[in-house]
Amino acid sequence: AQEKFLLIATAYETLKDEETRKDYDYMLDHPEEYYSHYYHYYSRRLAPKVDVRIVILVTVCAISIFQFFSWRTSYNEAINYLATMPKYRIQATEIARQQGLLNRAKEKGKSRRSKEEIRKEEEEIIKDVIKNKIDIKGGYQKPRISDILLFQIILAPLYLYKYIAWYFWWIYRFTIKRQEYGEEEKLYIIRKNMKMSQSQFDTLEDHQRESFLDRQLWIKEKYELYKQEQEEELKKKNGNGPSMEKIPAMDEE
């Protein structure tokens, strides 16, 4: 009775599904391919039932969440670092004083809190000013949700369209019509020559970018000359410049 039950259960499992039923009929007609069908039957039966698209979507979402919180942590660490740099600290302190933020913090806690608590609140005010009121460029920029993997995948067709439109616009203006480069286009070519990302280029000081423009580094020949000068200067700093000739030893009299 048990053997009959197992046979009936196996037959039901095989014939209830249209695909397995077709495979079974095909195997009856082609018994020489028994082992191949045996493999396909069990690989399909043991395969996960979850849609692969759902697995991919969940994976992308998990990566995006991790990515965003990782960037946010790095950003907060960067703000803590910038708050110690004189350039940003002085600027943030001046803005906070002009808006009366530091005075309000002192008056608010004059009678109820210790000096240490007031100092901590002032520190938080300075960090908040750096975050929201000072233009921070480069790798210290505030992370945007549109930069995470999920949104990058969703917006990929739009980015591709924009790039193609920009490329043909560039060809039309500067190759066909031979217009002169504007400052923005010159800086773009300089950045590409230097093989720098936009965030890296944004961290440069204004006087550095002005120096690049003054030296006309968007012109390939002038950039190559500048590059050679930088390499020679680096060699000198590292002590790898041309070695000094040895002073010949004096002959003994």
What does it look like?
Keywords: Chaperone, Membrane, Transmembrane, Transmembrane helix. This protein has 253 residues and is mainly alpha-helical. The protein folds into four domains: 1-46, Helix Hairpins; 53-140, no CATH class; 144-179; 180-237. It contains 13 helices and no strands. It has helices at residues 2-15, 18-29, 34-46, 52-82, 86-98, 101-108, 115-133, 149-154, 156-176, 183-193, 198-202, 206-214, 220-237.
- The structural class is mainly alpha
Which bin fits the share of residues in helices? over 70%
- Beta-strand residue fraction: under 5%
What gyration radius follows from the Cα positions, in whole Å?
34 Å
- Supply the number of helical segments: 13
Q: Calculate the mean pLDDT score and round it.
A: 79
Q: How many domains? A: 4
Quick one: biggest sheet?
none
Helix and strand sequence? HHHHHHHHHHHHH
Task: Tell me the distance between the termini.
Answer: 121 Å
Say how many strands there are.
0
Shape: flat
> Can you tell me the residue ranges where pLDDT is under 50 for at least 5 consecutive residues?
241-253
Main location: membrane
Subcellular location: Membrane
Organism: Micrurus spixii
Region (Disordered): 231-253
